[in-house]
Specification:
The structure is a single chain. By secondary structure, the chain is of the alpha/beta class. The protein has two domains: 2-265, Carbamate kinase; 277-370, Roll (Archaeosine Trna-guanine Transglycosylase, Chain: A, domain 4). The chain contains 15 helices and 17 strands. The protein has an eight-stranded mixed sheet, with helices on both faces. A five-stranded mixed sheet has the order 14-13-15-16-17, with helices on both faces. The radius of gyration is 22 Å and the shape is globular. The structure holds glutamic acid. Residues 17-18, 54-58, 79, 137-138, 140, 151-152, 215-217 line the site of glutamic acid.
Length: 378
């Protein structure tokens, strides 16, 4: 069954480390071209693909003549040099297979602050809807130690969560997780699948990046990434990247570790929305909007009659119906002041009143959960 998991995923995030994308300070063009071909095949089946690619520092470092490229600011300078070269290599390799790529550089703040999360997600969604493959890296030139991921494994997991991916593929220099470090313990056994992801697995991961090459993520960061994905209902698969066709190999059942959560991204998202959000305000909606929400629609300005509380874009708010009864909860794309300004207006009028074009919905359908017993009719 694992053989169909990749291709059955509607949205897939693939992470490639520096040791795959580059070799001796040069891009690994022929490998990237095969990856492009593999991604093109998944695209043709209608799958949305996001690639998280490292290699900026590795490509830029040799160009920083006279500097070691090891200090933080030198690494950042190396990333500034290497990132356009990385994109050029990926862009050219993928263009040969008619895959169009876009670049998105994210920082920790973009994935951890809710209003920035919403923005990044909207951009990625738009690119995916246009059939483009976003290529993501950390914005290394501005991310400093305290505010940086440092490894793209966890960044990739956050991206998987952001876009509601069903599968996160970590292409690595090992073919999965072992009961001990296989480079040191001959008795180490490969683990093909994890469905009970308890803390015992962390002990198996060994020292961070013990002898791995030039990337910064070892098995520890891969497991941290897998935990983020797990909480988001997204499967993680760790497998060897340096195969000729690493994605086809997965579908052929080659060695890998699949970490499989008990719920889907949809269920995880609804659980998060209903369990973890503390409302900072309330929007009151009319009967028409309440009925539309029950049918699974987004909340538009026209349906809002009043707003209570002081909150910014990205806040959690309670949604109450005409009789003031709580009907749901959601993450709002507008702050309280703007909602009050456009309450009751049609979308065009709202735009004119605000003086800018905001998101079409006050709360997008994917960002709201209806209270028990009032969900969309099935
Ligand atoms: N963002 C870094 C780069 O592109 C790599 C981080 C990592 O190794 O995961 O060089």
């Amino acid at each position: 069954m694992t053989t169909s998991w990749l291709v059955d995923s509607r949205r897939i995030v693939i992470k490639i480390g520096s040791s795959l994308a580059t070799l001796n300070g040069q891009s690994r063009d022929s490998w990237l071209s095969v990856l492009g071909e593999e991604i093109a095949r998944l695209r043709q089946k209608g799958r949305d693909i996001v690639l998280v690619a490292s290699g900026a520092v590795a490509l830029g470092r040799p160009l920083l003549t006279g500097l070691s490229g090891r200090k933080l600011e030198e690494k950042q300078a190396a990333a500034a040099l290497g990132q356009p070269r990385l994109m050029q290599a990926i862009g050219m390799a993928f263009a040969a297979h008619d895959v169009v790529v876009a670049q998105a550089l994210l920082t920790l703040e973009d994935t951890e602050t809710r209003h920035r999360w919403l923005t990044a997600r909207a951009t990625l969604d738009t690119l995916l809807r246009a059939g483009i493959v976003p290529v993501i890296n950390e914005n290394d030139t501005v991310a400093t130690d305290e505010i940086r991921y440092g490894d793209n494994d966890r960044l990739a997991a956050r991206v998987a969560q952001m876009i509601g991916a069903e599968t996160l593929v970590l292409l690595s220099d090992v073919d999965g997780l072992y009961t001990a470090d296989p480079r040191q313990s001959p008795e180490a056994a490969h683990i093909p699948m994890i469905t009970d992801f308890d803390a015992s697995y962390d002990a198996m991961a060994g020292d961070r990046n013990a002898t791995a090459g030039i990337g910064s993520g070892g098995m520890v960061t891969k497991l941290e990434a897998a935990r983020i994905a797990w909480a988001a209902g997204c499967k993680t698969v760790i497998t060897l990247g340096l195969r000729t066709q690493p994605l086809s190999a997965l579908e052929a059942g080659e060695k890998a570790t699949w970490i499989v959560p008990p719920v889907s991204p949809e269920t995880a998202r609804l659980a998060w929305l209903s369990g973890h959000l503390r409302p900072e305000g309330t929007v009151f909606v009319d009967a028409g909007a309440a009925a539309a929400l029950q049918r699974g629609a987004s909340l538009l300005p026209v349906g809002i009659v009043a707003v209570e509380g002081r909150f910014d874009r990205g806040a959690a708010v309670a949604i109450c119906g005409p009789d003031k009864a709580l009907i749901g909860k959601g993450v709002t794309a507008y702050g309280a002041v703007d909602i009050a300004t456009i309450a009751g207006l049609q979308t065009e009028a709202a735009e004119a009143r605000l003086g800018y074009r905001g998101r079409p919905a006050i709360i997008h359908r994917n960002d709201l959960v209806l209270t028990e017993g009032s969900g969309p009719e099935s």
